[in-house]
Amino acid sequence: MNAKTLVIREILHRRWSFVIGVVAVMVSVSCLLGSLALLERFDRATEQELGKINSETEKILKGHEDGIRKAMKGLGFNIHIYPEGQDLAEIYSKGYGEELMPESYVNKLAESKIVTVNHLLPRLTQMIEWPEGETSVLLFGIRGEEPIAHRSGKRKGELLDPVGEGEIALGYELHHRRNIKEGDSVEFRGKTLKVSKVHGRRGGIDDITAWVALPAVQEMLGKPGKINSILALECNCESLDRLGEVTREIMAILPNTQVIEVESRALARAQARNGAKALRIQEMENFVRDREKLRDLRAAFANFFVVLVTLLSLVCITYLTASNVRERIHEVGALCAIGLSHSKVLQVILSRAVLMGLIGALLSVALLSICGVILQSGGVFDLIGFDAYSWTALIIAVPLMSGAAAWLPAFFGARRAPAEVLRNE
Amino acid sequence: MNELSKSNPVVFAAGLGKTYEAKGKKVVALDGISLEVNAGEFVSVCGPSGCGKSTLLLILGLLLKQDEGSLKLSGTDVSDLSQSSKSSFRAEHIGFVFQDFHLIPYLSVMDNILVPSLAKPVENAADRARMLLSEMGIENRCDHLPSALSAGERQRTALVRALLLQPELILADEPTGNLDRENSTIVLDHLAGYTDRGGAVIMATHDNEAMERTGTRIVLDEGRQISSK
Ligand SMILES: Nc1ncnc2c1ncn2[C@@H]1O[C@H](COP(=O)(O)OP(=O)(O)OP(=O)(O)O)[C@@H](O)[C@H]1O
Ligand SMILES: [Mg+2]
User: Is residue A96 part of a domain?
Assistant: First the structure.
């Protein structure tokens, strides 16, 4: 006979109130563990969703980058070099500028060690009358590409169809209405020129443009040895500040010029990419903010719920202990008469509540593992994420709390004067 | 039985008084009770209902504190002992028997008898319990719950429980109150047998047969001692 036997026999004797206490503990422990698992699952779903958004963004950006790389590789980017004094507003409104610079600038650039420019095309442009055609024409004096002197011969093919000596290429509006075909001869400001190319409709100023060899145009316009711009094609450079780099290189060679970047597909793509990136980042930020708000709400609710359920189960244990003590009043009196100390009697009464807590906690954990097996989500424990230390703490803390809840009624029960119940009523 | 020095009475009480207060009214339960009980003495406390018999036994058993008077048990002045000292003093020196038995309902007869060993562990408690049970003729009820026993068997079980630790003093509050004549006689025989072996028994009763078995009778009336012989 020992105190353990006494406690266990008593529990078996009044088993239903004990079972109620155990269930109360199980409910509150399961609520705690369940809410931890649910919150963790929510967090993981958030992370997964974020990962998905992230990889989608990656993919989209990669698409853009590939495009940019291709565009850069194929085209590089293009710049115009104008004389220093050229008013850019004039170019934007008329399509060309009046300021001139020497044609020799092209040669100077071509012979320099410039590394970032692949093709140089000197141009002389002016809107003039075509008396024979009875229309205005944008006359475009071009020269075949200026080879860059220091580079070896392995160059790509010509970028623009050159217009040979005594030849003319015509935009759509110029040849279509007059029914001019390639190989025809046309009169152009007193010169007979052979049509080397008729262009299809481009839907822009190109459709009223006539391309003629640069020396002929210089002669027609009375501007020998002059050009008004150089188009530099396929400029490439590593750095992000590509225009800055090209400008620095060109300005070092031709100080009396200004450099303007031509709006290019690559630039558009880069802008699109940056736009897309900003949009995705914004989207991601919104998502994270929304999820955080939702999580806070869930956590607050879970905390409230767990605290409420825990309080209720503690109250339940207090009540069960109080009624247990009431039932055992004669027993407690007899134990006192026999000579058991108050502390021993208290210990006997409290053991019941502590065992309620211990068994309740262990059963909750067992129930959780069974649920995990049934629902085939063995990850319940993984979701709760407790280490051995936390589990031990839980298994110790729950019985202690249960004992604390039982303490007041147990204390007063054990201290109750046994004389009152032992005097024969 | 614990060794007693011959000079010390088991109970020495002088001028014990106890007044209860209920709802502002004072009830004098005991007034100037003095008694001396020596080892081997069988004493009965009698008197009409409400005269203070149970109160006296509870005070002698250290479960209730007197308002007045002094009390020595086995030579120890017990008036000023702490609660826990009183508990261990009870475990060591006093055995209780009640009219209502106060057995623990979910423990077997054997376990009920062994409960005092929780307060004061002793060697061979189970052997001694079995011996006492067979003396009482209920050794075959060892494993039964109290609910399966007759009133007489329950009281015999309670008696064995009180005797287990061989106290010097047994306080029995109307031990035959719920028993028929035959069972009363058995219980009284055992109490008397215990005093023959050197124990002291103080028994509250209003059963004449029980009174006649005792050597000393203390008669109370309204808390006062009206005779002692
Ligand atoms: N807690 C109490 N409060 C007030 N009065 C009490 C209390 N306990 C006992 N009394 C009173 O004290 C007196 C003595 O009571 P006690 O129980 O000692 O009598 P008793 O002789 O044992 O009676 P019975 O033979 O009926 O058992 C009674 O009048 C009783 O009403
Ligand atoms: Mg009484």
Answer: yes
Q: How many domains does chain A fold into?
A: 2
- Identify whether A165 is part of a domain: yes
A100 and A181 assigned to the same domain: yes
Best residue in B18, B96, B143 for a mutation probing chain A (most A CBs within 10 Å): B96
Ligand 1 atom closest to Cα of residue B18: 12
Chain B residues with CB under 8 Å of A331 CB are: 102, 104-105
Measured from the Cα of B51, ligand 1's closest atom is 21
pLDDT tens over chain A, length 425 residues:
889 999 999 999 999 999 999 999 999 999 998 888 888 888 888 888 888 888 887 887 777 667 665 555 545 677 889 998 888 888 888 878 889 999 988 888 888 877 677 778 888 998 898 888 788 899 989 886 666 666 654 444 444 567 888 899 999 988 988 889 999 999 888 889 999 888 888 888 888 999 999 988 998 889 999 999 988 876 766 665 667 777 888 888 888 898 887 766 556 666 666 777 787 788 888 888 988 999 899 899 989 999 999 999 999 999 999 999 999 999 999 999 999 999 999 999 999 999 999 999 999 988 888 887 787 666 777 778 788 898 899 999 999 999 999 999 999 888 877 888 887 55
Contact A334 B104 (CB under 8 A): yes
Ordered by where they begin, the domains of chain B are 11-228 (3.40.50.300)
Secondary structure string (H, E, C) spanning A70-92: HHHHHHCEEEEEEECCCCHHHHH
- Ligand 1: residue of A416, A423, A424, A425 to mutate (most ligand atoms within 8 A of CB) is A423
Q: DSSP per residue over A205-246, as a string?
A: GGGGEEEEEHHHHHHHHT-TTEESEEEEEEE--SSS-HHHHH
Asked whether the beta carbons of residue B84 and residue A12 sit closer than 8 angstroms, the reply is no
Give residue for tokens 């262009």: A199
- Which structure tokens are listed for A157? 């093919």
CA distances from A341 to A334, B89, B98, B147, B227 (A): 12, 10, 20, 27, 36
Q: ipTM higher than 0.85?
A: yes
Domain-located, residue A72: no
Tell me which residues have their CB within 5 A of the ion that is ligand 2. Answer: A 424; B 53-54
Domain of residue A370 covers 3-60+275-422
Which class for A105: exposed (0-12), middle (13-18), buried (19 or more C-beta within 10 A)?
Answer: buried
Cβ of A417 closer than 6 Å to ligand 1, yes or no, is: no
B172, B168, B155, B159: which is closest to B43 by C-alpha? B172
